[in-house]
Specification:
single chain; mainly alpha; Neurolysin, domain 3; 3 domains; globular
Length: 434
């Protein structure tokens, strides 16, 4: 073994990973955007990807070469050693393989079963239609985002109830159409890997911590926000009556009633322009990345915004490999609140895209959102970017009607006064997931 052989090994890892990663991500995008029905090919690509990143033989080979480089006689200090960057890249691969390695043939078979069940549920879910009563009082087809926006902004209580019923109906449908089998399969896989359940497995692999350590953080957050949350809900009940605390009413009375006044200052058609101009002024660039956006709702399309990179950015020797990044939202241009939601999505998902397009390491293993990349780390830049849209100074400068009229400062103040008391409630909703 010598440095040149290790360099070839490292370059082959980068190339082979790019192939399986790109194939999986391109199929993932096509199916979730409803431009392809190749579910079996995606399932095969998912298995190929997971087989690559969970291969114990690759992990052993990486460890062997790291050990050789670390023990190399006469090694120069790290800042002078030409193989130091190679060693850094291999350690990145070691972290990726250690976070994904699956022990034993049984474990790999169980993971393949999880992929199969997840793919089947997604295919059935895509054919499921959601309906509610819209602003015109008509029963119409809609999306998850449409349901949430209607529940927040529609002044008709019966319409808001229809959105909540559709959301609950979706939950019940998921339970009746295979989700519990997926949970069982995930837990069986995790136990075969020596973990208590799949949550234990995911937290350890993705965040590098135990569930107990995670819940020390979450429990502290819950305790720190409980009184503020209870106080704000009590005040809402006193001010608006107990009916305001019903689940179909609470978001409307927490500020959704102002959405109609705010809406004209966020024209849907101007959202992309305001996003690109906003990022330019913030100095956020993409280092030559190609971005592909799919922003409007349509039948069969996946109903949650997300960002992913079929081609991760990295430095290949002296060459820069720019990223190819896709992101999506479920915009409905004529719905009240859709312009603001589109802008928040562009800032959030565009923040993800900028993050991963600017990872200037020597391997694609550093520029991807899967384990060992921490979810908390991956969401940091996107959440900061999204928060800009709610900043009062940004609103006073950039929230404008199509004719250029700025949002009045009185409306900005009213928006803050309506939403600020419920910040704890909004943040605590995220606790539902863990």
């Amino acid at each position: 073994m010598d440095t040149s052989e290790i360099r070839v090994f490292f370059d082959d890892l980068n190339r082979d990973y790019m192939a399986v990663h790109k194939r999986k991500e391109e199929l993932y995008w096509a199916i979730r955007m409803a431009t392809s029905d190749e579910h079996e090919r995606l399932a095969e690509a998912e298995v190929a990807y997971k087989s690559f990143v969970s291969d114990p033989a690759r992990l052993a080979a990486v460890r062997e070469r790291i050990a050789w480089l670390e023990a190399k006689p006469g090694a120069a200090p790290a800042d002078q050693d030409p193989s130091a960057e190679l060693l850094s890249g291999l350690r990145g691969w070691q972290a990726l393989f250690e976070a994904n390695v699956i022990e034993g043939e049984e474990g790999r078979a169980r993971m393949a079963r999880v992929v199969e069940l997840e793919s089947a549920l997604f295919e059935r879910r895509r054919a499921l239609g959601l309906r509610h009563v819209d602003e015109r009082g008509e029963i119409v087809a809609t999306t998850l985002q449409g349901l949430l926006t209607n529940e927040s902004a529609n002044p008709d209580e019966s319409a808001r109830i229809s959105s909540l019923k559709a959301l609950r109906g979706l939950e019940e449908w998921i339970l009746q159409n295979g989700f519990l089998e997926i949970v069982k399969a995930r837990n069986a896989f995790a136990r075969a890997q020596g973990c208590r359940d799949y949550f234990d497995y995911k937290v350890r692999k993705s965040e590098g911590m135990s569930p107990e350590a995670l819940f020390e953080v979450l429990d502290d957050f819950e305790a720190s926000t409980a009184r503020a949350n209870a106080r704000s809900l009590s005040a809402l009940g006193r001010a608006r009556g107990s009916e305001a605390l019903q689940p179909w009413n609470s978001r409307f009375f927490m500020g959704g009633s102002l959405l109609r006044e705010v809406d004209p200052y966020f024209p849907f058609e101007l959202a992309p322009e305001r996003w690109t101009e906003g990022f330019r002024r913030l100095g956020i660039g993409y280092r030559g990345a190609v971005l592909r956006l799919d922003l409007l709702e349509r039948e069969g399309k996946y109903q949650n915004g997300f960002c992913h990179a079929p081609v991760p950015a990295f430095r290949d020797g002296d060459n820069w490999v720019p990223a190819r990044v896709n992101f999506t939202s479920e915009g409905r241009p004529l719905q009240i609140g859709s312009g603001l939601r589109a802008l928040e999505t562009l800032f959030h998902e565009g923040g993800h895209a900028a993050h991963f397009a600017n990872v200037m390491r020597n391997s694609p293993c550093f520029s991807q959102e899967f384990a060992p990349t921490s979810m908390a780390y991956a969401e940091t830049q996107s959440m900061i970017c999204e928060s800009v849209v709610g900043d009062p100074d940004w609103l006073s400068r950039h929230a404008k009607r199509a004719d250029g009229t700025h949002m009045p400062r009185e409306l900005i103040k009213a928006r803050i006064e309506a939403s600020q008391p419920f910040r704890a409630f909004g943040e605590r909703m995220i606790l539902v997931v863990p």
